User: What shape does this take?
Amino acid sequence: MPSREEKAWRHYRVDKTLRQARKKIKRNRKRKRVRRKSWVAEDWDDLDCAQTERIVPRGERERQRRMWTSALERLEEETSLAAQVPLVAEMEGPHGVVIEVSTGLCRVELGDRTVLCAVRGTLSAEDMGFTNIVAVGDEVVVSLDGAGRGVVEAVLPRRSALVRPDVFRSHLQQVVVANADQLLVVSSWQDPAIWLELIDRYLISAERNGLLPVICVNKVDLAEGLAACRAVLQPYLELGYQVLFTSALTGEGVGDLRQVLSGQTTVLAGLSGVGKSSLLAAVQPGLELRIGAVSSRHHEGRHTTAQVTMLRLGMGSSVVDTPGIREFGLGGLRQAELAGFYSEILAVADSCQFADCSHIHEPGCAVLLAVRRGQMSPARYHNYKTIYHSLPT
Assistant: This one.
């Protein structure tokens, strides 16, 4: 006869075996999740996963990664516009618009008068990646003293901004103009000669910063005929860009330009000497603008607009005249993102052999094939390559 201790030990062993069996049955009944490795997180926890995996089509993961990255960058860019400087939405005080900026000071339009204002020292924009706190076009809150002098206390959120890399600190950007509706890219047919790459750079910047781009080719009186101008600009017309052909000397296209400017806040941008000031004087005679001649030696314009200035026109419109520049950088843009601003490249890029094709040298590139077949503008593609090599990886 087994003792009482032996019986107790047998019961313990049987109970333990039953518990283990029940645990195993319960575990087998539990539905195992299929592993789907995320294309966002690189260190996904794969413990306790079934060995069955979801198979995605070739190139789908890279396409989703690019789409997600692009969406995040655009969201960050839109958010940064509203957070470039310390903002106070409900601060009491007069609200005005900055019409001119100089070192440490700015002119603010308050209703029917203009006040010279200093900028509150506690405001800072450098933490947000910008070098200037206040830009022409900014809507600001000011405080006034008894003598009529003002201080900018806050900058209200910007709905758009034309920016470019700072000249001396390339890792920072300079806000050229804020809260404009459209960007008028002015180029001249000759003296200085039309520069399509610069036009492309402005078109990219307009799209990145929420501005409607309009191309204006001035001095068409120097061309052999309007047909020659249209032939060069035909790729832009086919892509849906609005293109104006003007001559401040003969008045050609000035009426169309006046209509485009009507009721809008427009930024004028382009090389020195292309005739921005001359066009403004033709649109609204009586404006006190300096107009300079083009150098006969270098066929380049001289700077006549020394700083960014907002001018009020009739027709309920405003123009922001910017100094002529010799180049325009695209701060914050990388090589892999450039194709997204060339719609003709995007239209065929899905047929490229490689998902990360640069469209420069890879075998099986559908873009290179389209250029060879004459299905894409060689000039636009040349601009793409030139800008691509100027951007960081």
